[in-house]
Amino acid sequence: MTVWWRTTGICIGLAAVLLCAGREAAASEQPTGSVSGLPIPRFVSLKTDRVNVRGGPTKDHEVAWVYNRNALPVEITAEFETWRRIRDWEGAEGWVYHSLLSGRRTAIVAPNAGSRDELTPLHAEPEAGSARVARLQAGVLGTVKRCTGHWCRIAGKGFDGWIEQQRLWGVYPNEKVE
Known about the structure:
By secondary structure, the chain is α+β, with helices and mostly antiparallel strands. It has three domains: about 1-30; about 40-105, SH3 Domains (SH3 type barrels, Roll), CATH 2.30.30.40; about 105-170, SH3 type barrels (Roll), CATH 2.30.30.40. The protein contains one helix and 14 strands. It has one helix spanning about 1-30; strands spanning about 40-45, 50-55, 65, 75-80, 85, 95, 100, 105-110, 120-125, 130-135, 140-145, 150-155, 160-165, 170. A five-stranded antiparallel beta sheet has the order 6-5-4-1-7, with no helix packed on it. A five-stranded antiparallel beta sheet has the order 13-12-11-8-14, with no helix packed on it. Strand 9 (about 120-125) and strand 10 form a beta hairpin.
């Protein structure tokens, strides 16, 4: 009987090691940037209120447009040396110099499928039945304080509360942010 427990213990221990190794391998399968080693894609925000977006990853490429909104969330979709290819909430893509981006997490209230003018409730707690503290228009920008995977606490000028995660652009579905 003692031998059986030892054998079982070894098997359980070995199974745990293999399971952990499998999890690490799965986690490492997530694409990462060749320069930063950070996940690709990932959300970041604009560091300044003037950011040139170029057609390619060098200063030799022409400026395609300029962002004039500090803290706007963007998604990094590729890296090349000191340049990051980004996508905004409207789907526009271009290249930005890395030092113009911040790891600070922000999000934009996404438009409702039915109506762009419909207001989205902001709640006191992360549950639909809690008190509404505000109603936000599509396009409102806020700082992401925390996400549970279903709800995010966001704050901005004149508001602070919980919003359904699916109503935001700047966090992934089911993503947890601490």
